[in-house]
Amino acid sequence: MDSSRGAVLDSIREMYQFGVVDYCMFAAMLILSAACGIYFGFFKRTKAKDTPTATDTSDLDLGENPPTVGSVESKTPISPFGSSTIDEYLLGSRKLKAFPVAMSLVAGYISGVTILGTPAEIYNFGTQYWLIVVPIILTGVAVCTIYLPVFCSLKLNSSYEYLELRFNRHVRSIASVMFVIDQMLFLPMIIYVPALAFNQVTGLNLYMIGAIVSLVCIFYTLLVGICAPNASKWECLHTNFRFPFKGGIKAVVFTDAWQVVVMFISVVVVVIIGTIAVGGLDVIWERSMEGGRIDFFNMSPTLYGRQTFWAVLIGGFFYWTSFNSVNQTMVQRYMSLPNLRTAKLSIAMFTVAMGVFVSVCCYAGLLLYGKYYDCDPASVGLVSTNDQLFPHYVMESVGHLRGMPGLFIAGVFGAALSSMSVILNSVSAVLLEDVLRGLFQLNPSPLKANIFVRCCVVILGLTALGCLFIIDKLDGILIVSATLAAIANGTTGGIFTLGMLVPWSNTKGALVGGIAGALLSGWVSLGNQIASGAGEIVARKLPVSIDGCIEELVGNITLVDPVYPDESGVFPLYRLSYHWITPIGVTTVLVVGTIVSFLTGPRDLRHIDPELISPVIHRLLPVESFSYFGTANKNATIFNEEMQAQASVPVDLTVPYGPANDLNGHVGKEARTRW
């Protein structure tokens, strides 16, 4: 690079960096996020009417050494600091509202990966990915119809509890391990995204920013598990050692809700101002058409195409359904709502909001091309990776509106910090409860458990920081994160689907199917990443231009048509589009699990609890099974009336409860009044 061109690049980067107002807005956003968590975690007084009494213990997670029933009322005082019960801490006493939970669900999926990765994907590969909005809508229907009624009926605190009720603890352990692997692979992406955005607008070193993010988050996660004053010894230990953070789901939900609203507003403002500056929608559309970016119906039957009509529709549906239906971070929010009707309303809001948000991000990709159609920033060195395109555009388009870039970057940064803290806590808790105690059958003392959890937090955070050096070498954070997440999503989604939709499946089928699904999807995913890293597979980006760049910026750069390697020698499965990895995992689990179940002796449907099976399958169950309704989970006490309409079996409430009911469809009253 010649000195004159380097000077021009440096002056442009300097011009598009944070000012004093942006730094103030950025700091204010983060302080408000922390204040919201501190308020709900330490100063929000629990009302007396929400405190459980001696007769209200069904929602408490009693652990291994619970207090006696008579001691619950006397040993659980009203705490002036945060959540006074485990149920309030985990699920907000199941009294949260639909809208804030819906926004929290959006925040649970919309991260910096989506905001930065989606526009870059559209800019480089066209609008076919925009069709993902259709699977998002279909996913909302599938979750509300198939999965949500089961979780609501059982009133579970953790989605993995279902697998132990339906199969056994070993199946639960497999799903828990997959969850840990998934989150560990995603943690480096959580750090990388805000570091990348902040690097673009401040010029600070990427790895230094990542180190600060990691250390601050680790420090915060380690400290916020302090017990509330006057809390009972059992509650203090159980809360700190099993769930070492204090604010609970209520703090998470309300912080997420206002953060995602602010983030959405900032993105929309950027898009509107940018559209007006370019010359309107017609100009953007015309330039995108000329540049080959408009393509919604690539009907090619190939499985190797990065974005095709069939890959986006089918693969997107499997991916979104597997994540939104059974992932613990999503199910916990569903369970924080008071009933099934409110949960469905919240999911409907979430589905609409996600469709709108993703559409805005996809349109932002067209906006980027409309702006840079004749001067690609990556080609001339203004950005080091394509994922920095959107932050660069934000500084260039709305940088004159002091505070707006700071607000936008703070939204990305704050969401990442929150996500990382939640992941560190949830993974450490799963490692303790489901892996150490469940899988290895170890029962450490409270002190050892405390040390184990906090060591996990430190190790996970530092490991994620170390992996930042690898992520930085991978171009396309949207695809990398989706590819890695597909391993766990496909496996766990397949196991849950096997349990809810295949009533004949047994424990052996779930174990063998889950292992087979994990191995196959992991093989395909990691093989694809290795082949891509070796240069054997290269994504075919759409052409860009630098004809409109100023002469000082171009220098002696000449764009030539890229030469792509011959991929015919690469193993076929490694060449598959990342969209097909989740369908492979789910299908493998279902097929292998069903075959193994029938070979080893299918489940006797006459003695299965229908509460463990999705209502859409209840018509296939023998009427004898409904005499066992509600016997699987002893903690749930009231069967919601909304579920009764979905159980399409005639009921005679005058017949006493018990397995001795006749075979004419009569089910005991007690079995019909649960949840």
UniProtKB/TrEMBL annotation:
Residues 50-75 are annotated as: Disordered. InterPro entries: Na/Glc_symporter_sf, Na/solute_symporter, Sodium:Solute_Symporter_SSF. GO terms for cellular component: plasma membrane. Its main location: membrane. GO terms for biological process: sodium ion transport. It is found in: Cell membrane. It comes from the Eukaryota. One of its GO terms (molecular function) is symporter activity. Pfam families: SSF (PF00474). PROSITE patterns: NA_SOLUT_SYMP_3. Keywords: Cell membrane, Ion transport, Membrane, Sodium, Sodium transport, Transmembrane, Transmembrane helix, Transport. The chain crosses the membrane at residues 20-42, 98-117, 129-152, 173-195, 207-231, 252-279, 308-326, 347-369, 407-431, 451-471, 477-502, 509-526, 578-599. CDD domains: SLC5sbd_NIS-SMVT. Belongs to the sodium:solute symporter (SSF) (TC 2.A.21) family. This is Sodium-coupled monocarboxylate transporter 1. It comes from Anopheles quadriannulatus. The lineage of its organism: Eukaryota, Metazoa, Ecdysozoa, Arthropoda, Hexapoda.
